[in-house]
Specification:
The protein has 167 residues and is α+β, with helices and mostly antiparallel strands. It has helices spanning 23-35, 75-88, 130-139, 152-166; strands spanning 10-18, 40-45, 49-51, 62-71, 103-109, 114-115, 120-121.
């Protein structure tokens, strides 16, 4: 009798943002498309946070959220799937940090660290962005950042403290 190798589901956290069109609808559509991908199970989605754009040209306010999933899909395949959703939803990449219908970023993929030309996991700027940490801490405060070895809650509090000192 042969036993099938059980493939374990990896917890993954995804940042999503939109500032063109119906932002709420864009986030909902992206979420629905992500969880419809074979090999993905939804864990939890944060509420939507309205935030000012950082960097880039003058542009409208963003709505941001963090989605927690479990998946058997590799990080690079996940990136391809997410970029496909972005294109399907009208995302164009003309201006760095410019306005967009949808932005989907892999923030953390289990305890993996990926650093190549196509993909950086954990997301290289997530610990410096309140618009990522605030919704992330809502759904998964005890997740540990694999590179910094600090919880999301700890990173969030550090960033809040540093921002209040500089204000």
């Amino acid at each position: 009798m042969k036993y099938a190798k059980k493939i374990s589901m990896m917890p993954v956290y995804i940042g999503m943002g939109s500032n063109i069109g119906n932002r709420e609808e864009n986030l909902c559509t992206a979420c629905k498309r992500i969880i419809a991908i074979r090999g993905i199970q939804m864990m939890r989605c944060s509420r939507f946070y309205e935030t000012a754009p950082i960097g880039g040209p003058l542009q409208p306010m963003f709505l941001n959220a963090v989605l927690g999933i479990k998946t058997v899909i590799s990080p690079h395949k996940l990136l391809e799937q997410f970029q496909g959703i972005e294109i399907l939803m009208g995302r164009t990449r003309t201006v760095k940090w410019g306005p967009r219908t949808i932005d989907i970023d892999i923030l953390i993929y289990g305890d993996k660290i990926v650093d190549d030309d196509r993909l950086k996991i954990p997301h290289s700027l997530m610990h410096t962005r309140l618009f990522v940490l605030e919704p992330f801490v809502e759904i998964a405060p005890n997740v540990v950042h694999p590179g910094l070895q600090k919880t999301i809650l700890h990173l969030y509090r550090e960033l809040q403290t540093s921002l209040s000192v500089t204000a």
